[in-house]
Give the backbone structure.
Amino acid sequence: MQHIIQITQLSKKYKGAEDFALNDFTLDVNKGSIFGLLANGAGKTTLISMLCGLLKPTSGSFTIDGLTYAKNGNDIRKIIGVVPQEYALYPTLTARENLMYFGSMYGLKGDNLKEKVIESLDLLGLLKFADKRIETFSGGMKRRVNLIAGILHNPKVLFLDEPTVGVDVHSKNAIIEYLTRLNKNGTTIIYTSHHLSEAEHFCTDIAIIDQGKIFAMASPEALIAATPDAVHLEHVFLALTGKDLRDV
């Protein structure tokens, strides 16, 4: 199996912090997988921020599709998509205007961009709201537009940080179905969530991270089978990381 992301002994310690947010982290992600990062604390967000080029590692290295930011930063940015947990949208612009803007930032233009925007809005049930301002949208509608903004350029790798947080059941279902379709068309997905039941059914592979380190990594089925008395992924997570609260 070909690896599209290779991470070697990656660490990050923030200025003034006593502990590492990510510590000696090594991980390979298979091309075409839906890889779930399930974590307590800041580990998963720190990792994604480094993989997206937003943070510099304290030590260690990684490649995406064989490329590094030091030598090929612009090339990496062309092949990744990022859907942050917070809405990255302009509230006073319409859904269409937002997507035309973000698409142009990825180098799309003309009829190709217009068609991509219309097609994506239609697939996620938003076409009839295309010319409504984002500030009038529900949370689920904003979440769907937020997703479209990160995938208009057909990225090889898509980073998702809590893509279904705070949305209604129908929006959640539409998002998961759309992501599954993207994955079947070749996009590798890196997914983080606190919804363990969702991760259990959605992900092909999972890494459980606690205090900046990997505690276990396998398919959801294999993790459950390897944990005594576990029926769901939540049981695995608690068995590996303990039940202590993670308040900071």
Notes: The chain has a mean pLDDT of 92. Residues 169-184 form the longest helix (16 residues). Residues 33-54+81-241 form a domain with the Rossmann fold fold (CATH 3.40.50.300). Strands lie at 3-12, 22-30, 34-39, 59-64, 80-83, 157-161, 188-192, 205-210, 213-218.
